[in-house]
Design brief:
This protein has about 210 residues and is an alpha/beta fold. The chain has a single domain (about 5-214), classed as NAD(P)-binding Rossmann-like Domain (Rossmann fold, 3-Layer(aba) Sandwich), CATH 3.40.50. It contains eight helices and twelve strands. The protein has an eight-stranded mixed β-sheet with strand order 5-2-1-6-7-8-11-12, sandwiched between helices. A four-stranded mixed β-sheet has the order 4-3-10-9. α4 (about 90-95) runs parallel beside α5 (about 115-125). The longest helix has 16 residues, at about 200-214. It is globular, with a radius of gyration of 17 Å. The termini are far apart.
Length: about 210
């Protein structure tokens, strides 16, 4: 597998794990977090390392760059990963709009139709050099940050749905992203968006917990 330069946005469970996993697989990984949240991952900023354990493998991943400068984070990268909650997508569209280019692929994980929202945010903020925007039907892992700079993977998905906007870019996206994870190419982001079950499953669990807690 050839090394590919990527950027990972955010500092949550998914972002830490994607960054660590891809770095351990030999890719060049830049990681970005906003200034106001940087203190929450201070150890990663200090060491440029994330320790990963669990069923996806064990190791200490060395990142190429950890920064609060989004322009530097995505400079010369081929793929920008957004393993982020849906409510942050338009914010990242605004942050990335001055810098992201048509030569890059932006992947929202999971999408839940967020690819459409992200593209609209780019356009609303003046981006005229539009990248390919894609989304997945979920994260590749069930994972948690277990300590500062440490993640543990509890489950690996056998396959994730993948689609792009417009849909005719799907094969280009798939050929690039199959280097990273097992994806199932869909015809449209409608398939990946409506196929993501978290909005259905999480409320049930939360409600059950509250009922038991009473």
């Amino acid at each position: 597998m050839d090394s590919i330069k990527v950027a990972v946005m955010g500092g949550g469970n998914g972002s830490h794990t994607i960054a660590a996993d891809l770095a351990l697989k030999g890719h060049t990984v830049n990681m970005f977090e906003m200034d106001q949240f940087a203190a929450q991952m201070q150890k990663v900023f200090e060491t440029s390392e994330i320790e990963m354990s669990g069923i996806a493998g064990n190791g200490i991943a060395k990142l190429n760059l950890v920064t609060t400068n989004i322009r530097q984070a995505i400079e010369d990268v081929e793929v920008v990963f957004l393993p982020l909650p849906g409510f942050t997508v338009s914010v990242y569209g605004q942050l990335l709009s001055p810098y992201v280019t048509k030569d890059q692929i932006v992947v929202i994980m999971p999408g839940t139709l967020s690819a459409l929202e992200f593209r609209e945010a780019l356009r609303a903020n003046g981006n005229r050099n539009e990248p390919i925007v894609a989304e997945t039907g979920g994260l590749p892992f069930a994972t948690r940050i277990v300590a500062p700079g440490k993640v543990k993977v509890f489950h690996i998905r056998s396959v994730c749905g993948l689609a792009s906007i417009p849909g005719n870019n799907g094969k280009v996206v798939y050929e690039k992203l199959k280097e990273f994870y097992p994806f199932d190419l869909k015809n449209s982001v409608v398939e990946t968006g409506l196929g993501h079950l978290t909005p259905l499953l999480h409320p049930v669990g939360c409600r059950a917990y509250r009922t038991i807690a009473r």
